[in-house]
Structure prediction request, 157 residues.
Amino acid sequence: MRYIGRIYDNRRSDSLATWMRRRRFALFRSLIENLPTPVRILDVGGVQAFWELMDFADRPGFEITLLNLDSEPVFHANFCSLAGDARDMACFSDREFDVVFSNSVIEHVGNFEDQRRMAAEVRRVGRRYFVQTPNRAFPLEPHFLFPWFQFLPRPLT
Prediction:
């Protein structure tokens, strides 16, 4: 069981999942590294632990707001956590954030219309945005790490 955790547990710094996330995150980092500071980031659906693994905890020049259905306690000075809905971010002004970041959330907000509403809100509140979603054609289903799970008939899933 320890071996399996080293593969998929994205809370572990030594897991394959964390290594893959860091590789994807390198692209994001390259896109924001030359922005003038302070850089205000809104993470829609994210958690502080992710940013800790990416070495952004207490990083000078970066202010990160986490938006989730429920707020979570934060332990670093550059974090803020708020409760809200990705489909209606009326609590934020237009272009309030330098960057809106969202990692594998849009596919969970509901039907296509809900996803469209989230995308419109992301574009509205951010000057830039980085929205990642799993590739359906990838051989492993990203939540269960079950090969080809996403192609099983609906009654079996």
In short: The domain at 36-136 is CATH 3.40.50.150 (Rossmann fold). The mean pLDDT is 86. The two ends are 24 Å apart (CA to CA).
